[in-house]
Specification:
Keywords: Carbohydrate metabolism, Fucose metabolism, Glycosyltransferase, Transferase
Family: Belongs to the glycosyltransferase GT106 family.
Mean pLDDT: 78
Strand order of the largest sheet: 9-8-7-10-11-15-14
Strand content: 5-15%
Shape: globular
GO molecular function, one term: glycosyltransferase activity
Protein name: O-fucosyltransferase family protein
Pfam families: O-FucT
Largest sheet: 7 strands, mixed
Length: 386
Amino acid sequence: MDADNSSDGLASVWKHTNKAGGWKPCINTNMNGLPESNGYIYVEANGGLNQQRTSICNAVAVAGYLNATLLIPNFHFHSIWRDPSKFSDIYDEDHFITTLQHDVRVVDKIPEYIMERFGHNVSNVHNFKIKAWSSVRYYKDMVLPKLIEEKFIRISPFANRLSFDSPSAVQRLRCLANFEALRFSKPISTLAGELVSRMKALSVDNSGKYIAVHLRFEEGKEVGEEKFTKPGRVIRPGVIRINGKCPLTPLEVGLMLRGMGFSNNTLIYLASGKIYQGRKDHPLFLKCFLFCKLKRLWHHQRSLLPLSEVFVTTQGGNFPHFLIGHRRYLNGGHSKTIKPDKRKLAVLFANPNIGKDGQGVCRIGIGIALGATRNFREEENETKIG
């Protein structure tokens, strides 16, 4: 497909194609009131922003399941991320507490009479070291008795400490926390609104539509990095790439989108960390798309991406999974996601006929066929490339 050619497949990317009607959230508000609390739970959310968000949702689910009162989660200061942000710096704390008030009690501090029992030192509180992906049954059998006895327990670390295979009532609390209670703080949401307005204004020729690309090509994602090599392990980058385990380079992402038919004046919001070998690869992507806005210049990526018409993910991880789910929730099951089939693309990109024309405009000489366009309900929501 020529880079600038239009097609029915490309035109459909901008359209909602669900024929059976929209999906509706299943989060119903509990108006029955809460029984007396069994005690207080303190959790330490560790990892990056997305792992911390997972921890918060799990903490709400566990607290609700154990009929406990949740202390606003503490964000662990990570030696790699070095982010000193507190909960209220990222999220609207009052909104979080109010949204959950009929389902889970949430407080910003432990009562004085409780803290006196532990010498006003949280390190004196019994800490559970819970195995990753533990079931809710484990919390009921092992954590609840101690909670009732002590009235205050802590769980640290708490990332990935609750199994995804949980009863519907527990999953409901996770969804309530993730999609309703967790709202970005005022400074972040205000900035996000300004950025979305700016993106839509810049793409006025395309009815305000733009594409968001999550480009995971930071240092450490390149196969064969010495720090990830285990003693005695042989890294075979070529084999790993053919198996679809390598992230797409910036140029390959540009070639893929141009091969689908997106012209070089399509507005792109590019969310990425520091690009590996960025001086070499990043300019090539910018040649494919002249109107590209960078996250490092436009700040908070998570608040801007959910409102894009099309989201392109180039590698797995917590972030794209969160975003795909949130976009579907916000749009009644409708939201376009382009997920490349990296195994097939590795073969296509090995073709020597793929390159740049004399004008420096990216194009793919052989066709990159669009797979079935699938929706969340009728499998017409995701576009599989390759």
